[in-house]
Design a protein that fits this description.
homodimer; alpha/beta; Dna Topoisomerase Vi A Subunit, Chain: A, domain 2; Helicase, Ruva Protein, domain 3; two-stranded antiparallel ribbon; four-stranded parallel β-sheet
């Protein structure tokens, strides 16, 4: 019974069997209502969670708070891999458009093809009109690039403006330790400098 | 709803809000039976867990597997702080006696007094007869030492032999970085050497 709970925790990403044991024994020291609250919180979430019918972000309602917010720019759609990426971009407070959550990236190795992702619904959104720019904000990996290219081919005839987030040296990175591809790209894609970043 | 689940995970020791979010979103990607199995595993464990009536180790039965094992030496009792310590000592395969799980150590700072621990039941076990040696295997901390001393005073008139686990330099530790107390103790408590450790 202890083993069963530990095994369940050890299935979580980044949780080894020792940490799993520590977490389970911690829970065992809590009172019954606290343990119930913990266990039920994920079951309830999984059972009742909804996804926004427009952007596929997680949502408590049919349309998520971002898509329902009329002060945001609905003509700009930022394409991201997952919910965490929406949160990360929201945290920058630099983006006032809306999102489109793909639910992953194309990865033949992991058996993820275009039909497993919310790409067709993105094409539909663009075809529906009102969208001027699609920002591709996928991870700068081979899978991300493959997905970017696939979306590009699907949307290139739609007339929508397509952009990709800037790639370059990260804040506080040391230049000498930056990889060649990134450094090379940061020089090619240099931007005008007016005395302040 | 997402926040609720994340908050529940963030209550676990060593799990910050970012990790909690990652774990919850991982679970959200699993199917319903998997999430049910995860959530129910801890609830079931908490609801149905038993503790050994002899040594207070976690157990599926009235008496735990160690206490019920007649091939073990029931005249030697190793006093430990918690269940993890039993597992750690069992993993060494160096101990064939039985255990007594205190459920903590005396720690006035945390409001833990002797009556919160399984000390009276240890005194009772010793008074019950049949026990020749009590090994004190608590952590070498101030709280552990306080608890060791408290147990010593409670048992000194019982005639039972009391020992404490050896303290000294740890395997693979570098001597120059070992603290003075440990190094000093390792010299005072040196043991006869016959050519092999």
């Amino acid at each position: 019974m202890l083993e069963k709970a530990v095994n369940e925790f050890a299935k979580l990403p980044g949780i080894g069997s020792k940490t799993a044991m520590r977490l389970v024994l911690h829970l065992l020291r809590q009172d019954m209502p606290a343990v119930e609250a913990f266990g039920q919180s994920v079951i309830t979430l999984k059972r009742e969670v909804k996804y926004c019918s427009v952007c596929h972000n997680i949502s408590d309602t049919e349309t998520c708070g971002i898509c329902a917010d009329m002060r945001r720019d609905h003509s700009t759609v930022c394409v991201v891999e997952n919910i965490q990426d929406v949160m990360a971009i929201e945290n920058t407070q630099q983006y006032k458009g809306v999102y489109h959550v793909l639910g992953g990236v194309i990865s033949p190795m992991d058996g993820v093809g275009p039909s497993d992702l919310q790409i067709q619904s993105l094409v539909g959104r663009v075809a529906g009109g009102g969208i001027k720019e699609v920002i591709l904000a996928l991870s700068p990996t081979m899978e991300g690039d493959t997905t970017n290219f696939y979306i590009y081919r699907k949307l290139e005839d739609s007339g929508v403006r397509m952009t990709v987030i800037a790639r370059g040296v990260a804040q506080n990175d040391e230049l000498q330790y930056t990889d060649e591809v990134t450094l090379g790209r940061s020089i090619v894609n240099r931007v005008a400098f007016n005395g302040q970043i």
